[in-house]
Write a structure and sequence with these properties.
With 175 residues, the protein is an alpha+beta fold. The protein has one domain: Nuclear Transport Factor 2, Chain: A, CATH 3.10.450.50. Helix content is 25%, strand content 38%. It has 4 helices and 7 strands; from the N terminus they run αααββαβββββ. Strands 1, 2, 3, 4, 5, 6 and 7 form a 7-stranded mixed β-sheet that branches.
């Protein structure tokens, strides 16, 4: 009895809406659309501080092109997913194993500088997630930007990266 009544109630509200698009346009995240982040640094000794310290170690390894430092922050089974957004074109998704990810960070002449801003940290027991916009500079110049998503787990009291995912675009990046 209630189901037909509910359908009659919703029908006038949805009748004027267009049908869903097969491929809706992508939207570039704006700071207003990101999860809320704590504007203050987490207190010393907090889980949030420990999670961000692991992410900082990961970024330090990336910025120094130190595969061993990156690997120390990862679980042995960690993987990565990269969503590359081409300007005016389709996105591509690429997945990397732990070994493939570490192979990207071998010594070389270029300087890397990836910095996150306004990280949102969510923790549930021994599971954590960090979501943060980032800008990646190559030899001091903006190369690309996007959003980092880092999933972490706590094993034996230590936070480790279980998986990484990030978007990568070359337009709309902050200088």
């Amino acid at each position: 009895m209630l189901l037909p009544l509910l359908a009659l109630t919703l029908a006038p509200q949805t009748a004027s809406l267009p049908p869903p698009a097969a491929n809706p346009p992508r939207s570039v995240p704006s700071p207003a659309k990101l999860p809320p982040a704590n504007p203050l640094a987490p207190p010393d000794g907090s889980d949030e501080r420990a999670v961000l310290a692991t992410v900082d170690k990961l970024l330090g390894g990336i910025n120094t092109r130190d595969a061993a430092a990156i690997g120390a922050a990862l679980l042995p089974s960690a993987s990565a997913a990269i969503v590359t957004e081409a300007a005016g074109g389709p996105s591509t998704v690429r997945t990397l194993t732990n070994a493939e990810l570490l192979a990207r960070f071998q010594p070389g002449p270029e300087t890397f500088d990836e910095r996150i801003s306004s990280p949102a940290v969510e923790i549930d027991g021994d599971l954590a997630m960090v979501w943060a916009p980032y800008v990646f500079r190559l030899n001091g110049k903006v190369h690309h930007c996007g959003t980092d998503h880092v999933s972490l787990v706590r094993e034996n009291g230590t936070w480790k990266v279980a998986s990484l995912a990030w978007t990568s675009r070359t337009t709309g990046c902050a200088e």
